Q: What sequence folds into this?
């Protein structure tokens, strides 16, 4: 559900659901406001003020004023933020500006009245009344506009990052080779009349595979489900390749809590068949060893390769592997690895990943 | 019209047989599971048309078509392929037709009809005009009563002698009717010229030696008589040996 929402935000960046003003009720945000307000106060205090009698007193009064204005605004924005959700960016900016100006004016006026008759009266002389208020208003307007601009850019950046990582994941999403689809169709066409039950089984397996392959990016399956998909894939290839394909499974039963990005293992088997078994006149054995030790799952897939004196075009071979590797890096935050070894007519790929990964936190958090 | 089917997948062969049985005037001759079998069967049975899968283990479809073209009376070749195997247009001109799997009966019928209407001369010109760029994996030698296929990786050396080239390979030697120059070009990645009349497999070349008369010979794994290295090729041989020891 959470993911669906995020996607919604990402696709409709200008939508009314999300607001570019940050949440001022957040403690960290309040702290940031205090720090920024204090920095602002330092700037004012450091400015040329003529000969002030007491620098520290001057700074503390400015700080008091600035913090007062900043925190009052934060409190108001905290209350108003939810209500402004459905408004346009420009309207929200306008409201914020007016709000800040009002708070500044009120604060200025109160300060002025409060200092009358006290020791601090000379800080804001009566002749200065209007000018004092106007200066405050201009300063707060400039600071507010800068802050709004900053919030807006930050919000845009966040949207872009979410959209980019989603697009990246989508691009990396394993796609079953079209070659396999068409070969399977051909198998079905060949079996339909002579062995209709077998053709039926191929159709069922094919449907399961493509249901996952065509679904949205970022889907996770339990390791057991992924292994079942692999089995379905191998069923189809078994019918197509006959005796040439021999499979050796070594697997234990895994907890349903162990999750893996959908179609992370199946492409490794597809590679083993496409580059290995299919290229050998007598075929060979693919061995799959899948085990869990501690909080790490290790899958080792081994297949024979044709021996060639000079390898023909090698390109294309590692694209699928690089793709899976990058996908693992994105999904497991580098708590996964994919190693390959190729020697003397044997190709070996070893995938390791951590089981402690929390699915919800790992995707686009 | 007599048709031979070649595909490495049993269901694909089954499908082709079913379709062929339904078309009038077409006779199924035999089926083969790979290029090697197809070449043997074609040599024995001389079909009119070969339906050839492209992606096959060992000798693939394209190379099989090349070897078939060397027949005196070559069969018409129709390629069959699944999506995305090869850039189809690249070799479109070299076959009578190509069909996409799963095959349609009408398309197959059309292709066979087209093959039928071509005379032998036209066929030959189709196949001989070859711009297949990849090196072959096998050499085919057509004797009067048999077809010998030699895997290029089993070849130790090519040695020219007058009109013919002798192929020395792990299981013996044969004469072939190809020029040393074209062999050198095709297999430049695997063989090195060591003399005006000799090419040697890179991985069989283990060293050089000088005989009593000062002539340099190549030490070649698998050859009894070490071939001569001509003066102008010595540096190339040394370079290769140096690279191998590294």
A:
């Amino acid at each position: 559900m959470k993911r669906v929402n995020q996607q919604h935000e990402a696709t409709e960046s200008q939508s009314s659901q999300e607001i570019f003003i940050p949440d001022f009720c957040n403690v960290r945000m309040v702290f940031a406001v205090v720090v920024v307000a204090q920095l602002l106060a330092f700037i004012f205090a450091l400015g040329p003020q003529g000969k002030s009698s007491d620098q520290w007193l001057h700074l503390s009064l400015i700080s008091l004023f600035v913090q007062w204005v900043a925190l009052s605004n934060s409190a108001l924005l905290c209350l108003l933020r939810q209500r402004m959700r459905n408004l346009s960016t420009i309207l929200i900016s306008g409201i914020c500006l007016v709000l800040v100006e009002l708070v500044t004016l009120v604060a200025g006026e109160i300060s002025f009245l409060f200092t009358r008759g006290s020791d601090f009266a000379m800080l804001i002389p009566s002749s200065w009344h209007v000018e004092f208020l106007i200066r405050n208003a201009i300063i707060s307007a400039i600071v507010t506009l800068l802050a709004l601009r900053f919030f807006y850019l930050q919000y845009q950046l966040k949207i872009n990052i979410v959209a980019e990582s989603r697009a990246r994941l989508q691009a990396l999403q394993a796609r079953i080779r079209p070659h396999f689809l068409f070969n399977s169709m051909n198998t079905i066409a060949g079996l339909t009349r002579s062995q209709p039950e077998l053709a039926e089984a191929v159709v069922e397996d094919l449907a399961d595979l493509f249901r996952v392959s065509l679904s949205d990016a970022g889907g996770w399956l339990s390791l057991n489900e992924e292994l079942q998909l692999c089995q379905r894939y191998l069923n189809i290839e078994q019918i197509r390749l006959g005796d040439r394909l021999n499979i050796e499974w070594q697997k234990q039963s895994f907890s349903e809590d162990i999750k893996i990005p959908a179609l992370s293992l199946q492409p490794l088997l597809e590679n083993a068949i496409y580059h290995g078994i299919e290229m050998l006149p007598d075929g060979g054995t693919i061995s799959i060893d899948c085990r869990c030790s501690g909080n790490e799952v290790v899958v080792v897939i081994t297949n024979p390769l044709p021996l060639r004196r000079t390898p023909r075009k090698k390109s294309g071979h590692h694209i699928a592997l690089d793709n899976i590797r990058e996908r693992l890096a994105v999904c497991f935050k580098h708590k996964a690895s994919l190693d390959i070894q190729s020697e003397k007519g044997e190709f070996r790929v070893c995938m390791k990943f951590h089981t402690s990964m929390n699915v919800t936190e790992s995707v686009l958090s | 019209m007599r048709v031979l089917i070649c595909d490495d997948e049993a269901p694909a062969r089954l499908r082709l047989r079913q379709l062929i049985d339904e078309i009038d005037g077409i006779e199924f001759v035999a089926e083969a599971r790979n290029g090697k079998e197809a070449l043997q069967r074609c040599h024995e049975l001389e079909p009119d048309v070969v339906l050839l899968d492209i992606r096959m283990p060992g000798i693939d479809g394209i190379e099989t078509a090349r070897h078939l073209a060397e027949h005196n009376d070559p069969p018409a070749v129709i390629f069959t392929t699944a999506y995305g195997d090869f850039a189809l247009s690249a070799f479109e001109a070299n076959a009578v037709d190509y069909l996409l799997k799963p095959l349609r009966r009408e398309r197959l019928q059309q292709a066979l009809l087209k093959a039928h209407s071509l005379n032998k001369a036209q066929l030959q010109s189709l196949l001989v005009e070859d711009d297949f760029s990849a090196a072959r994996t096998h050499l085919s030698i057509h004797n009067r009563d048999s077809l010998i296929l030699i895997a290029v990786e089993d070849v130790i050396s090519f040695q020219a002698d007058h009109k013919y080239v002798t192929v020395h390979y792990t299981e013996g030697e044969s004469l072939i009717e190809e020029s040393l120059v074209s062999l050198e070009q095709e297999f430049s990645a695997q063989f090195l010229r060591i003399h005006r009349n000799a090419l040697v497999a890179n991985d069989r070349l283990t060293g050089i030696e000088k005989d009593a008369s000062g002539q340099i010979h190549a030490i070649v794994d698998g050859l009894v008589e070490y071939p001569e290295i001509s003066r102008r090729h010595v540096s190339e041989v040394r370079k290769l040996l140096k690279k191998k020891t590294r």
